[in-house]
Amino acid sequence: MEHYLDNSATTQVYPQVAEKVLQLMTEKYGNPSSLHSKGMEAEEELIKARHVIAKSLGAEDNEIYFTSGGTEANNLAVFGTAMALKRRGNKIVTTAVEHSSVYEAMKELEAQGFRVCYIEPESDGNFTEEQFRQEIDKDTILVSLMAVNNEIGAILPFDKISKIIKDKGAPALLHCDCVQAYCKIPLKPKKLGIDLATISAHKIHGPKGVGGLFVKQGVRILPQHFGGEQESKIRPGTEPLPLIAGFGEAVRITDIQKNNEIVKALNSYAKDRLSKIQGVTINSPKNALDYIINVSVQGIRSETMLHFLEDSVVYVSSGSACAKGKPSHVLQAMKMNRDLADSALRISFSAHNTKDDIDALCNGIETGLKILVRR
């Protein structure tokens, strides 16, 4: 029996979602831009999926734009805003713990002459409202921060930023990377003053290869791709309809309250067991999202323990999957002790996990601490 605890990297697709994807590949396979009945049939599915996702965000259907995933949506938000507002200012405010699809985009904008401020977290990974207040000014055209950090689960003060932007008289748009938060915590971008919000399907038991960007009505960003009328020309190209329909189905059948109750209990059980293992340190802040626990198994490198656990069919991560084993810039920004950072593991849950998965994890860590060669 496998024990999959790497749900922040990706999730197992719901059977109903897989069935929906197959149906769109084999039955309703028309191009939604085609004018014949097969195309119209496909377009109906596109409209349905867009409506379900828009409703989940308290948005209008025309405020949802489909992309190939969270990375493209983040790039579209960041570059699209910077290019649209560059005449109104030169400063961008973000954090030092963003996902690489935002962090690397910011580095590119710096190379193009933009001034980017990277706010660093406190030692526990949290951020304060005051940190953003100090940096946002009248020259700021974009504030981009994640709702939930993908490595340690810290919840950022994304709900406080809109007021700061208004108070400072900044022309900035507010972009929030909601990939780890979507369908886990209530998210209504317009009520929170968020102009742009990134979401992704494969973190919520949907298919890989599809994501979305919420763009508040009236907000102008410049497209980064060209060549068609699809998605109101913000993201042209034939829509990957089977994936989009699967995305919509995953959102439709997700019960956020029920899932959160299950995961909260699992998180509590896991922390109780892990805290009793000598040599294990919990790195996630106490107020982190219940879906993620970052721990360090002191003295044993992350990859060594990761592969040891894999031999027992226990799957965790050494950090963000997109980093592919490189040192975590998130833990570096927290100024974490090098030994702790080098031995960090990310445990991430879904509502399909059980206490058996946690027991297998903890038993594996305890065994590893006894037999693995320490550095």
Assign an overall shape.
Answer: globular
Cα radius of gyration in angstroms = 21 Å
The rounded distance between the terminal residues' Cα atoms is: 31 Å
Counted beta strands = 12
| Spans of at least 5 consecutive residues with low confidence | none
Order of helices and strands: EHHEHEHEHEHEHEEHHEEHEHHEH
Mean pLDDT across all residues, rounded? 95
> Helices and strands: which structural class?
alpha/beta
Query: How many alpha or pi helices?
Result: 13
How large is the share of residues in beta strands?
5-15%
User: Looking across the biggest beta sheet, what order are the strands in?
Assistant: 2-8-7-6-5-3-4
* Main beta-sheet strand count, sense and barrel state: 7 strands, mixed
How much helix is in the residues? 25-40%
Attribute tags:
alpha/beta; 7-stranded mixed beta sheet; 3-stranded antiparallel beta sheet
Produce the secondary structure layout.
Blueprint: E1 3-4, H1 15-26, H2 37-56, E2 64-67, H3 70-85, E3 91-95, H4 100-111, E4 115-119, H5 129-135, E5 140-146, H6 161-168, E6 173-177, H7 189-192, E7 196-200, E8 211-215, H8 241-253, H9 256-274, E9 280-282, E10 292-297, H10 302-311, E11 314-315, H11 329-333, H12 338-342, E12 344-348, H13 355-371
Parallel strand pairs: 1-11, 3-4, 3-5, 5-6, 6-7
Antiparallel strand pairs: 2-8, 7-8, 9-10, 10-12
Helix pairs in contact: 1-8, 2-8, 3-4, 9-13
Describe it.
The protein has 375 residues and is of the alpha/beta class. The protein contains 13 helices and 12 strands. The chain has a 7-stranded mixed beta sheet, with helices on both faces. A 3-stranded antiparallel beta sheet has the order 9-10-12. Strands 1-11 form a two-stranded parallel sheet. Helix 6 links the parallel strand 5 and strand 6. The radius of gyration is 21 Å and the shape is globular. 46% of the residues are buried. The model has no long low-confidence stretch (mean pLDDT 95).
